[in-house]
What does this fold into?
Amino acid sequence: MYKTWWKILGSVLVIYTAIAGILMGVPRLPIINESIRNLYFHVPMWFAMIVLFSISVFYSIKSLSSKSEIDDIKAVESVNAGIIFGLLGLVTGAIWAKYTWGQFWSFDPKQNFAAISVLLYFAYLILRNAIDEEQKRAKISAIYNIFAFPMMVVLLFVLPRLKDSLHPGNGGNPGFNSYDLDSRMRMVFYPACLGWILIGYWIYTIRFRIRSIETKQQHN
It folds into this structure.
């Protein structure tokens, strides 16, 4: 039970988010209106992605010194899981943009830089697949990952603030913390963030176990 409590918690929080996110009241904001409910899904996807990419860069750094295949597998599988949430973040963002900005993709700086940040990690996977020798692949991809992570942070949190943007919290626009993210929304938003992060970590552990089994079978 002690090994599964966080899985149960993550599942309960996501189910709670889905139900409460639809049924509970939200502030009536101009333009955004009911679409503000997407906050419970869109933003937590990015938080989950960032946590998973953080795990990946940790194991990439560790693998450079340990030369451990296990650390390398953990690094790549956390990226694989993180990309899932990055894509979900892009999709939920595009849907939200359609209802608030009038089109799925308006080439807003936040959208563009978010897409580039996900592509950075697709490039990481392509790089790995292009190298056959295991030790060389692990070393080069780890170095790439160490540089990709700060680039991702800059793309998501720094550059959009320097450009004119429709996205809340960028280009001079106030973020949701600045207005009308009332107590009702906080009761759903914070559990949503934790729930999706736990689900993301769960996906990562499943992928890691599968890859570990496949690797052992290849070595036998």
Q: What stands out?
A: The chain has a mean pLDDT of 87. Helices lie at 5-23, 39-66, 69-100, 109-129, 134-158, 183-219. Residues 77 and 210 are 10 Å apart (CA to CA).
